[in-house]
Amino acid sequence: MKNTGLKFPAVLLAFLFHITVNAQTMSTKEDQNRAAIFPKGDKAPAEYFSGTAWVKTLVANDDTLTTIISNVVFEPGARNNWHTHPAGQILICTEGTGYYQEKGKPIQILHASDVVRILPGVEHWHGASPTSRFTHIAINVNTEKGVVNWLHPVTDEEYNKK
Amino acid sequence: MKNTGLKFPAVLLAFLFHITVNAQTMSTKEDQNRAAIFPKGDKAPAEYFSGTAWVKTLVANDDTLTTIISNVVFEPGARNNWHTHPAGQILICTEGTGYYQEKGKPIQILHASDVVRILPGVEHWHGASPTSRFTHIAINVNTEKGVVNWLHPVTDEEYNKK
Predict the structure, then answer these.
(1) What is the pLDDT of residue A35?
(2) FRET partner for B133 with CA separation of 20 to 30 A, picked from A55, A124, B10, B94?
(3) Percent of chain A at pLDDT above 70?
(4) B11 lies in the same domain as B87
(5) How confident is the model at residue A113, as a pLDDT?
(6) Global pTM?
(7) pLDDT per position as a tens digit, A1-21
């Protein structure tokens, strides 16, 4: 029984270490899943996206609501091509750190809760920052006027001009 | 030193209890804040809502995008009046358990990731379940055709007919 005093702190430390490690794992997982309200959906087409992005259609187009809503997840470094929307688009940012740029203007940094109003015909692109995943809900309004006109990819030089 | 063997388990138990309690507190807090992407906003008008709800305008109306977007948080038991939207509305559920009912149909239960397409002129109401907070993003499209026509409150009898 002489060593009992040493044995218990060792057990205690092992328990605490185990619990701390588990808590950290859980916390990281929680952070990653915090805004994962929707399933990832399908891989975004390489024709219009650089890097890996995922698109989940939430509302498909129709003649009554004339609105398309998609949840888009960009892996770090991923972005879409330069493009325009004939009737405009609204982005609601829900997770991570993103980039948004309109032609001739500096890149804007986006975070959860940021909302971007993209006016009709404005050339722009959006995507994740180089080190963080980024998720937004994209709302195409008044689709009877058109949805999107895709242009050329955002070059690494344009993307890294930060 | 004779009692050391008893003292350490007591310390260990106390630690474990402390850690367990803290972990539970954190977990509950995480759950509550999981989808709190937006600040709560302003209290919804008692004229059109029963119970406590909060409205944060994300996109105000304008002639270009003709769209209004709001984040609405309903405390447990809160709901809006029966109403119609001349041009329709889309609900994107982000947190908690909610209710949605169209006139003459049973109440539908809503959870995070559910999307509701409300067609123009359809009489309906939405809100939280009796025991859970509920949050959705509400998107009013084609606002040039009108936004909302408020009707009478949802009675307790209607609300509890589940």
Answers:
(1) 53
(2) A55
(3) 78
(4) no
(5) 97
(6) 0.81
(7) 444 444 555 555 454 444 444
Instruction: Judge: A66–B141 Cβ closer than 8 Å, yes or no.
Output: yes
Cα gap B96→B90, rounded to integer Å: 17
Split into its structural domains, chain B has a count of 2
**Residue numbers in A near B92 (CB within 8 A):** 58, 69, 137
Chain B neighbors of A91, CB-CB under 8 A: none
Q: Looking at residues B102-128, what average pLDDT do you find?
A: 98
Gap between the Cα atoms of B128 and B77, Å rounded? 6
Q: What are phi and psi of B147, to 5 degrees?
A: -115, -60
User: Measuring CA to CA, which residue among B66, B33, B40, B69 is closest to residue B55?
Assistant: B40
Q: Which chain A residues have any C-beta within 8 angstroms of a chain B C-beta?
A: 1, 4-5, 8-9, 11-12, 15-16, 19, 23, 30, 34-35, 37-39, 58-59, 64-67, 69, 87-88, 90, 92, 94, 112-113, 115, 117, 119-120, 137, 139, 141-142
User: Do B1 and B23 have their domain in common?
Assistant: yes
Q: Are residues A12 and A80 in the same domain?
A: no
B9-19 pLDDT, tens digit per residue, is 555 545 444 44
Same domain, A58 and A94: yes
Q: What is the ipTM of this complex?
A: 0.80
Give the A:B interface size as CB pairs under 8 Å.
101
Give yes or no: residues B59 and B19 share one domain.
Answer: no
Same domain for A96 and A143? yes
User: Mean pLDDT of all residues in chain B?
Assistant: 86
- CB-based contact A44:A53 (threshold 8 Å): yes
Residue B99 belongs to a domain with what CATH number? 2.60.120.10
How many whole angstroms separate alpha carbon B149 and alpha carbon B158?
A: 20
Do B89 and B110 have their domain in common?
yes
| Range in B8-22, B55-69, B82-96 the model is least confident about | B8-22
Q: Are residues B47 and B10 in the same domain?
A: no
Alpha-carbon gap, residue A107 to A7, rounded angstroms: 58
Domain of B148, in residue numbers: 42-159
